[in-house]
């Protein structure tokens, strides 16, 4: 179960089958994110990307397959325990609307550290996000969409995750805001978090990550270096339209 945890990938999942009731959505899906790596999971709408993230986060129990964090088999563990193993998921713009920016951040710290440590971590996160710092006492409900995404990412600074999983952070945001968020993800990566990103905008993903998995109909159909894919827009287009037409190489 726990082999060499020091050299183990930050995240790996293999042979994942998952269903919603009688409808199977994932068929033998798997991927690996090495320590320090940023990886994107791309594919057309509805192929199962978010479902795989739910399985990774422990929000959906797979019918089969395994999830490892840092070499530890977490397949049977709760979401809370997975957080204890270094997983942080940023999904949508999930915040507590009636709590202030500072209170939202502190909520995440209290689960993992002391009150003093949390206070310091919150200040460190606010120092990275000046726009949040200026609104620190305002309720999250007053934030713009982009600021709420920043808040969701700022929580990752408080938590200092080993693995940061992000679902569609560019959705509905202006390009300039997305650019700022990408820079922040890059900084979190530099501080030691491996990153798995599900992203509709292929350009956003390719300019950020090192490696890409393409998913179609619940399976991983290709795996490529981001730089290789970025140099071949025709292939990217074909993969996003449906990979089997694109000469896949998983
Ligand atoms: N809670 C649910 N109950 C039933 N079916 C669901 C549920 N969530 C997702 N599905 C279905 O499972 C399939 C995969 O959905 P999923 O959200 O994982 O795809 P996705 O690749 O993330 O899509 P998108 O890029 O559009 O977000 C879709 O057919 C979707 O309709």
UniProtKB/TrEMBL annotation:
InterPro entries: AAA+_ATPase, ABC_transporter-like_ATP-bd, ABC_transporter-like_CS, BCAA_Transport_ATP-bd_LivF, P-loop_NTPase
SUPFAM superfamilies linked to this entry: P-loop containing nucleoside triphosphate hydrolases
Similarity comment: family membership: Belongs to the ABC transporter superfamily.
One Pfam family named in its UniProt record: ABC_tran
Record protein name field: ABC transporter ATP-binding protein
Record field: transmembrane: none
Keyword Nucleotide-binding: yes
GO molecular function: ATP binding
PANTHER family: HIGH-AFFINITY BRANCHED-CHAIN AMINO ACID TRANSPORT ATP-BINDING PROTEIN LIVF
Coiled coil regions, renumbered to chain: none
């Amino acid at each position: 179960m726990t082999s060499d945890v020091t050299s183990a990938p930050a995240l790996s999942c293999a042979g994942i089958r998952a269903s919603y009731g009688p409808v199977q959505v994932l068929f033998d899906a798997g991927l690996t994110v090495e320590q320090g790596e940023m990886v994107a999971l791309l594919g057309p709408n509805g192929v199962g990307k978010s479902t795989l993230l739910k399985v990774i986060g422990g929000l959906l129990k797979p019918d089969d397959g395994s999830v490892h964090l840092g070499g530890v088999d977490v397949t049977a563990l709760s979401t809370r325990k997975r957080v204890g193993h270094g997983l942080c998921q940023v999904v949508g713009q999930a915040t507590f609307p009636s709590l202030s920016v500072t209170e939202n951040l502190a909520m995440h710290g209290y689960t993992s550290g002391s009150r003093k440590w949390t206070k310091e971590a919150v200040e460190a996160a606010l120092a990275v996000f000046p726009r949040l710092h200026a609104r620190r006492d305002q309720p999250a409900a007053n934030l713009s969409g982009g600021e709420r995404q920043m808040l969701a990412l700022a929580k990752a600074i408080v938590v200092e995750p080993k693995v940061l999983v992000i679902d569609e952070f560019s959705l509905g945001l202006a390009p300039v805001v997305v650019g700022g968020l990408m820079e922040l993800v890059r900084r979190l990566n530099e501080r030691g978090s491996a990153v798995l990103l599900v992203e509709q905008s292929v350009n956003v993903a390719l300019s950020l990550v090192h490696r890409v998995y393409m998913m179609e109909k619940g399976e991983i159909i290709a795996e490529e270096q981001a730089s290789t894919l970025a140099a071949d827009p025709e292939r990217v287009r074909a993969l996003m339209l449906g990979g089997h037409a694109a000469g896949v190489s998983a």
